[in-house]
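thread from #wetlab-drylab

HS: before we spend reagent money on co-crystallization trials with S-adenosylmethionine, can we at least see a predicted complex? here's what I'd submit
DV: go for it
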Amino acid sequence: MRLCTRKICFEILNSADENSKYEKIINKHKNFFDLDSKDKAFVKVLLLTFFRWNKSIEKIIQKYTKKKSEKKILNILKIAITQILFMRTTDYSAVNIGVNLSKKFGSRTSGFVNAILRQICRDKQKLLGNLKIEENVPDWIFNNWKENFSLNTAIKFAHQSLKEPLLDIKIKKKFFKKKNWAKLFKGKPLFGELIRKSNSGMIEDLPFFSAGYWWIQSAASTIPVTIIENYFKKFNPSILEIGSAPGGKTLQLCENNFDVTAVEVSQNRILTLKQNLSRAKFNVNLINEDFNKWESKQKFDCVLIDAPCSGSGVINKQPDILYLKRKLNLEILVAKQEKLIKKSLNFLRKDGLLVYSVCSLISNEGKDIINKILRHNKNYSLLKLNRKLINNIEIKIIDGMLYSTPICYQNNGGMDGFFVSCIIKG
Ligand SMILES: C[S@@+](CC[C@H](N)C(=O)[O-])C[C@H]1O[C@@H](n2cnc3c(N)ncnc32)[C@H](O)[C@@H]1O
């Protein structure tokens, strides 16, 4: 059974192309679905751990092999080394399974795999001691962090980003005080109506899931709606939400009884949003369309854009970015983000508020876009964010824009890298 899980990881890695998302690759793998839930979880943990440490593992392989091996042999070594160095698998079993996987490539290859893996087991403590954790973060992310924060901070971001993520649960406001949620979830309160717990087991099995008393939403991603709640204290605004699925922010908007029009382009993702809305018993005007093609005469008090982005702020949740997205084209993404913002401004009434967020701390996707929009549109001004608008949570504010970083609330497991900025239409 165990060999089977490693074999599936091996096949998944062999078929992975650098531009596909890991969930998509797994879903394409027919044998994955025949596994029981324990083995499925093991395959996911092994792959995610490998993605996190991919660069370090590649460097280790280079150190131990003189000539370049073909991709499949490298993948056997990578799977075994991931287990030897970063998981609880016994050395014996990791080596044995690696050697078994390599047998079909001939006895010379399996002998080669055996020799390297055994040497790595012997050198394990030295290799772990010499690890340079930040080398696993691609340069285009790390250098931007370094430029916009500092080298020291970028290293801290990298270290925190390689840790396994925790799970944040947002309780509906009206139920928050009615139960001891931290005890129910064996977690800890964070801020607002958020409970943070270890990310283990099935979400559907947690108490009151089907009753719709809560939903999964990372702490950082609750901030845009907190700002909207505080900004529109005196009346219930009409909100145009662009990029809604899977729907954490939509549900948050709904629990405030705001009048929400939610636009989401993805047919697949909107299904999850619909399930989440129905479980929480909320209703919105849901539009499954590309916002760039959407037409309406309506003007809104507020536009919320949670834009598609590099995802470089959520490396701990989606470590495949460290492996699969090496060729990610930031310029194309930025152009898409800018296009969404520009079009959305047409739907904002005078004095209306645009809230823009991305789960990334890369300046191109954040402050640079906002500054460019402000430079070219004299009728718009920056709403300088302050502590009051975010209920005094401990998040970095620089020049009126908000940066949740992996080292905010670090003693509680850190936060997603998340950027929020607001513009007012004059
Ligand atoms: C960061 S995710 C949104 C997360 C969501 N706001 C939440 O809190 O759960 C970005 C979303 O934007 C959607 N999207 C991307 N381009 C779009 C477009 N042109 N029109 C509408 N939605 C779009 C994506 O399909 C994706 O679901």
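DV: The chain is about 45% helix and 15% strand.
HS: ok that's useful, forwarding to the group
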